User: What shape does this take?
Amino acid sequence: MTVEVKNIKDQIWSLLSGIPDPEIPVISITELGVVRDIEVNKNGIIISITPTYSGCPAMKVFEDDIISTLTREGHKNIKIKTIYSPAWTSDWLGDEAKQKLKKYGIAPPRKTSEDKNMLFEEDTKKVPCPYCDSNNTKLTSQFSSTACKALHFCNQCQQPFEYFKCI
Amino acid sequence: MNNQNPLFQYCLRLADNSMILSHRLSQTCASAPFLEEDVALTNIALDLLGQASAFYKYAVEIEDKGRTEDDLAYHRNERDYLNFQLVEYPNTDFAYIIVRQFLADAFYYHLYQQLSKSKDEKLASIAAKSLKEVTYHLRHSGQWMIRLGKGTEESKQRVQVAVNDLWTYTQELFEADNIDEILLGDGIAADLNLVKKSWEEVVSELFKKANIKPPECRYFVTGSKQGIHTESFGHMLSDMQYLQRAYPDAKW
Assistant: This one.
């Protein structure tokens, strides 16, 4: 990789790091881990992205936001490529991103290696409440306002809250 | 319309199955028994729609005749769809919705485990992705089976009736035809005998947990791989395809 190409890639990465997730605007699309690769060649730029969930409706917004952000900064011939492998995992969220989620009121995902849920057993591991840190919480539903979150309830502070699912 | 490429046909079947089950679930939107379940069923529908889209996109890429994923999803006639009759079964009541989902989820869970080891990288990657989502679906439908099976007299009776009725539609999930066999030989398709064995294990384990009696079935439907459907399917399609028929090639 030439120094020039590396500089362009770094610049693009930093521009993409400024694009918020459309549904959870406190984290960026790079923190979420959907941007997988940046390729710069003489024909233009190819950005590879991967969906968090197959049907994630934010994918189109990601594409539009990436193209408009890079175009605004003078980049041309931008192509978006959707890839499925390796499949997105919540383990790609870094500690900093997890802190931001918690502050925003979404309980961050545990590590997939700690997720030993049996198929048909009740989940005995409690998700700590993002508001009051109590472990006295219960699962309301595995599904919530977006595909990537589950709905829980805190018995301590009597607040419903969302948990970023571990996949 | 008939495209004999086995991989195209294989992808089309996978896509049709996810698409039709997704549409059935989407019909529960704003009419599920309560709000959380409304959200859950439509979230599952959304995952399935995403999976269908990935398989349709791959199918048109293999076919390479300029058709789009929407052409495959919305511009075919009843007999051209290759989905199982199980997934098109109407939303008779909540027990039927859950039992249909459980039987299908348990199938997908094992199918995608096999398929994620396929020699076809694209199929393997879509399967590995889908498997993560399907695991959540199976947990959800499985836990509902237990709640209904161990619930009130009414819920016990209803879930048992749904199991007895829908059992008729389960055996064709595992019927392999020449397309399955050709692709299995190439290391691409899932081995349906292995899928069947694991499916039977997980289903009978769950029936025990949920106090559901294993059905004694006398008769099994067949033919979905040749485009055979139940009576309700045409009605469902007329609803599902309405917009694309009325406004051809409408874009979002």
About this structure: The radius of gyration of chain A is 18 Å. Residues 93-164 of chain A form one domain.
